[in-house]
Structure formats: C-alpha cells, structure tokens
Design a protein that fits this description.
The protein is α/β, with parallel strands linked by helices. Helices cover 26% and strands 26% of the residues. Strand 11 and strand 12 form a beta hairpin. The chain binds cytidine-5'-triphosphate.
C-alpha cells in the first residue's frame, strides 16, 4: 500500500567543475525533471530536500533547497543529508571528471605550446555519488538512479541498476530534435523505468510532468516494499 509523508532527497541540475576563476566544465542539464519531482512530491505530502546544481529554476514552495556547484560539494551534501531520509532520487547530471588543477588566475592563451597550439587538460574522476549512497544505505532506505544514454539504452541502464546497487533506474534515450537540443528542459522524453525485479515500464514522448509523477509512484512502491 502506498504511504504519504516520506522524507525524500532529490538531486537535480548539472554540476560545474571550475578550470580557473572564470571558466568551468558542465553539461546541458536544466534541472526540470528534478524540480518537477520536488514540486509533485511536496504536493503529495512528502518532505523534500532538494540538492541542486546551478539552474534558472525557482525552488518549489515548502521544499528545502541546498545549492551546490561541484560534484564534490554535491557528494558532501548527499552524504550528510541522506542518512536522515527515506529515499534518494539521484536526478542530477553529475560531472564524471574534474580538472586535476584549478588555476588561481585566468588561464592565458599565451600559455599554449608548439606548432599545433595544443592546450592539454588533465581530468580526474569524481566519486560516484549514488553508488556510494547505495553502498551505505539502511535496509529501510531506497535509492533511485537515472541513466541518459545516446546508445544501448536498456543494457546500459540494466548494468547501472546492478553495479550501482539501485532499487530502480529511470532510463532516458538521447536523440536530438530538429533543433539538436536533446531531452533537456521542457522536451518530452522516451525511455523506461526499471526496477530490481519485475518488467521494465516503457514510455514514449512523455512530458516531464507525467514522468515525474510516475517516478514518484515507483519510489512510493519501492518504499512500501521495504522493512520499516
Ligand atoms: N551519478 C552519480 N555520481 C557521478 C556520476 C553519476 O551519482 N559521479 C549518478 C547520476 O546522478 C545518475 C546515475 O549515476 O543517477 C547514472 O549517471 P550516468 O551519468 O548515466 O552514469 P555514469 O555512472 O556516469 O556512467 P557513464 O557516464 O559512463 O554512462
């Protein structure tokens, strides 16, 4: 049976990894799906903490927002907050790598070398936040991940579900529209929700508002199946 009033930790938006005081590496995530889930979850009577990378979106009413910028900051915020929550819904598009060195001053073009005018950047891997949270969770806690894939959607999503030890994963297919924008912002999405057990539930051309509600249905179902 579905229960209301869970404590849900939702992450949303991109992370930014600085190169120098004026530049960063990031991705096209807008945070739309995460913020929509936060709003609907609150309307369903759940308590919501939203850990968000930089976005243009307003925080939904009665949602506690923690703003972060880098993957490291998001990792710290999730590690600190998740132990008090019932579920982690890891919607953020976390940058997998960060620059090994962050310059104190603006990197100058005059620093490039050789006839090829090459400038090389060393990147170091960021921690896998959702996998780390899943490995430390209590039997009462649920962990839901996401997978945006440009190819082999279902095998890649299934592999992530298993290796990250998630209760469910929301797989979405990247295919650029005529404007080449992909599934970012208000664009409809295609993919499937896969749970640890049971058949995958596919969706096509779904508005994020509807997908957000379906994801929350899934989270409530998973939580209801866990010991309390
Ligand atoms: N994720 C995370 N920490 C990271 C990278 C990803 O917690 N450093 C989470 C995302 O929030 C998402 C899930 O892991 O819920 C899958 O993210 P994705 O980028 O699709 O997978 P990766 O593990 O980064 O694998 P790859 O980039 O090789 O596809």
């Amino acid at each position: 049976m579905k229960r209301r009033g869970y404590k849900l930790l939702i992450t949303a938006g991109p992370t930014r990894e600085p190169l120098d005081p004026v530049r960063f590496i990031s991705n096209y995530s807008t945070g739309t799906l995460g913020y929509t889930m936060a709003k609907i979850a609150r309307a369903r009577g759940h308590q919501v903490v939203l850990i968000s990378g930089p976005t243009e979106l307003p925080c939904p009413p009665k949602v506690r927002k923690i703003s972060v910028e880098t993957a490291t900051e998001m990792h710290q915020a999730v590690s600190k907050t998740f132990p008090k929550m019932d579920a982690l819904i890891m919607g953020a598009a976390v940058g997998d790598f960060r620059p090994l060195r962050v310059a104190n001053q603006k990197i100058k073009r005059s620093g490039v070398a050789g006839s090829l005018r090459l400038w090389q950047l060393d990147l170091v891997e960021n921690p896998d936040i959702v996998a780390d949270a899943a490995s430390h969770r209590k039997p009462t806690q649920a962990v839901i991940g996401f997978a945006l894939e440009t190819q082999n959607l279902m095998p890649n999503a299934r592999a992530k579900l298993k290796t990250k030890d998630l209760d469910a994963i929301v797989a979405t297919r990247y295919f650029p529209d005529q404007r080449g924008r992909g599934p970012f912002g208000d664009e409809p999405v295609e993919g499937a929700i896969l749970k640890r057990r049971g058949a995958a539930k596919g969706f096509r051309s779904l508005k994020k508002q509807v997908l957000a509600a379906r994801i929350l249905d899934c989270v409530e179902e998973v939580l209801a199946s866990l010991p309390r």
